[in-house]
Structures are given as C-alpha cells and as structure tokens.
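Need the bound structure for magnesium ion, inputs here:
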Amino acid sequence: MRCTICPALGISAFALVSVALLAAAPQDTGAKKWGVHDKDRPQPVMVAPGGHGKAPSDAVVLFDGKSLDKWTAGGGAAAWEVKSDASGGYFQVKPGSGSIRTKDGFGSCQLHIEWMIPADRQCNGQQGCNSGVFFMDRYELQILGSNPNQTYVDGMAGAMYGQYPPLVNACNPNGQWNTYDVVFHAPKFNTDGSLAKAGTMTVFLNGVLVQDHSEIWGATAHAAVAKYSAHEPKLPIGLQDHGDPLCFRNIWLRPLAD
Ligand code: MG
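Answer from helper R.:
Posting the output first, comments after.
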C-alpha cells in the first residue's frame, strides 16, 4: 500500500490505517461503560479556569477579598480582620479570638488557599508562625513558617500534622505568599462506624508536590497516634487560630465526587 502523505507526516501507512479504523468504531472494553474513543461519551462540563487571584467558574468561593460571610466562629461572626493591600483583599487571624470554620460543610474537594506569615514574625519551632487548614474540621494540613524554621518534620509547612512530613520544603520566606492546592478525599465509614476507606490528601505547595495521595491515619492529634471516629459525610473546613497573626486570601473550593 502506498501512502503519499505519510512520509510528510512522519508515520507509516499501517499507522494511518490503524488510526482511521480506531476512530471509526469504539473498541470493546469489556465491562467498562464506554468504548475507547466512543463518540457517545458525554463531553466534560466547560469550566473557565480562572487564573491568578481568580477562581474557576464552577468553584465555591470561600473568600472573595471582601468579607468573611462564608465563615463562622462559635456560631457567631468570624472575628478575624479583613484588610487589603495593593494586591487585593485578605484577612488576618485575630490571635486569641478562636479558630474559624466555613458555615457550609464539604466532603471530598479540591481546595485552593493562599497564606502568608507577616515579614516581622519570628518563627521558633511550632511557635510564632502557626496555623492550619482542617478538612472536615479534623484533618489538618499544617501551615507553619518553614523558611527558615526547624521543627519536627511532621509539623512543618506541607505536613499532614503528626502523620506525614512534606516530600520537600517548598515554603516561601516570611512576607511572601504561599499557595496550597489540595485534592482531599474524605474517608468512608461502614454503618457500624468502622472505617471502610481511609481519606487521602494530595498537596501542592507553591506548585510543588508535597503530599502524594497520602493516606490519612485519622483525626489530627498532638503527640498521639491519630485515630478515626465515624462522622458525617460533609463537615466545615476550619482555619486554626494558634495565636499567630497569619494572613489568608483567594480561597475557593470545588466539591469532588467520591
Ligand atoms: Mg497548626
């Protein structure tokens, strides 16, 4: 068989025919729902991807730079302070006022959050530069000034507190914003309350992979081995008041199917 355009395309006539045949009829994939290249397979939903400081079009925006309306503390208004600078709005922990949590509950999700340790903060181990993101109000992704700052490694930036250190230290120095992009999968429980499937976290810190589908041991504990306790499928996301005036901005979330 001769193919006049194949040399120009850098492929063989056999490859060209094979591609044509594959495109013509979906390949049987046995028990799988869809055939390979199945034209009847539904198109993914269109999502405008957002960009710097802008959430994707299908995201739940948890902080838009203006208000803490999506957050609560102890059943009342979140008392942390909303501020702004040249880059836009952010909010700051009001030390001693208590942790805050979202009014709505969430299960598995993709979360984007940006945080910054003020430039004048002195980080001394777990003191001075500490906060955290608590998925489902109990699974902490640690926030800690870690450039420079030595502490136990399962308690530094990018750590799943008390469980896994980050794969690398990709933390920016104090005074610079850091970004977390997280894929969180909620744990599943049997009707008798026993664990059916552990939760997981995949985390990028400033675009660098620091947790690679790490399997959660249980609810975050200090100086103790974490254990699971059955809970609802959707619970708030918490931000920790550890007594330090950390800053946050650009928080959005996309619920994920389990
Ligand atoms: Mg913490």
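Comments: The mean pLDDT is 92. The CA atoms of residues 108 and 258 lie 6 Å apart.
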